[in-house]
Amino acid sequence: MNVLITGGAGYIGSHTAKFVAEAGWSPIVLDNLARGHREAVKWGPLIEADIADRAALDNVFERYPIQAVLHFAAFAYVGESMQAPEMYFRNNLVGTLSLLEAMRARGVGTIVFSSTCATYGNPVTIPISEDHIQQPVNPYGESKYMVERLLHWYGYAYGLKWVALRYFNAAGADPDGQLGEDHDPEPHLIPRAISAALGSGDVLEIFGTDYPTPDGTAVRDYLHVTDLAEAHSAALRYLDGGGASTAFNLGTGQGHSVREVASMVERVSGKKVPVREAGRRAGDPPSLVADARKSARLMNWTPRHSTLQDIVETAWNWKLKSVPSPAAPRA
User: Fold this and answer.
1) Which of 29, 30, 111, 328 lies in disulfide reach of 69, CB 3.0 to 4.6 Å?
2) How far apart, in Å, are the Cα atoms of 287 and each of 129, 220, 241?
3) Catalytic residue among 11, 88, 120, 140
């Protein structure tokens, strides 16, 4: 099976391309490389193009007999979306509409969409199940929610088969050391904490210490990126087996606070993580923890690599590998 992976040069997309190839399928990566990395595409061809470029999409579908699409291509920074909402709706929503139209024109009727727990907004109950009300509190979450509605109506009108995977917090790195997380600037907690421990980045800012959580810092459900990659394969098999179009949460059901993450980085690295406390960021809910029982029941998927220690260890090993060695002293 040829699988088109949009955004396949990015963090989660590249890990999924590796998993797809190891599952015996053929990943075809489409990425504009605005935030992805050419060197992360190792398991299939790379088409350098934007999903908003309809002519480029038509060319890909004509060149390759695509059977399914894994759709990652999107901007995904909450803070940035609060500053530039138009960029998020144009890229995430309008770009997806372009992709769906190209799929429909070529008779490609299966898609797995990279959605997010940010569609829930400030949760009313914890853990969060898929039937929790969706009220996003930032443009990033809103743009993903609107894509979910697009998928629903394309399914109703045109028979599109779809799964929306609502990630909680992707983290960690490929245990084989071939891939890892590399954003510039880096918005995510674990790599920022590691950089702070290494002295290669700023001190770790803790945004908000007065949340209604056990230690006052925000709590998140961290999921290893390889478990996420495996979930996309499970979603394709679910649809191929006749499963109904739906959304699934992807998480562990266990939350960790910012302070807990910093402590784990210190334990794994043996180094101190310098921190600076700051005010809350707009658009950040206090706690996001998944109820992922539906994924286990219907997709036969459960995370296997997602203890906080496993996540931090693989991220730490990746970071050490990518840090330049100091220059040798002159004689």
Assistant:
1) 111
2) 14, 6, 35
3) 140
Burial 259-278 (b: 16+ CB within 10 A, else e): bbbbbbbeebbeeebebeee
Task: Kindly report, residue by residue over 257-304, the tens digit of the pLDDT.
Answer: 999 999 999 999 999 999 999 999 877 889 999 999 999 999 999 999
The helix, strand and coil proportions of the chain, stated in percent and rounded to the nearest 5, come to 40, 20, 40
In sequence order, the 6+-apart residues with CB closer than 8 A to the CB of 315 are 171, 172, 173, 180, 181, 190, 191, 194
| pLDDT at site 247 | 98
Q: Which two tokens stand for residue 208?
A: 């908000």
Task: State the pLDDT confidence band at 323, using cuts at 50, 70 and 90.
Answer: low
238 a catalytic residue: no
Expressed in angstroms, the distance from the first to the final Cα of the chain is: 57
Percent of the chain with pLDDT over 90: 90
Q: How large a percentage of the chain has pLDDT more than 70? A: 97
Token pair belonging to 59: 């060319």
pLDDT band at 329 (very low <50, low <70, confident <90, very high): very low
Distance of CA 130 to the CA centre of its chain: 18
Nearest to 60 by CA among 47, 50, 73, 74: 47
Structure tokens at 39: 């060197």
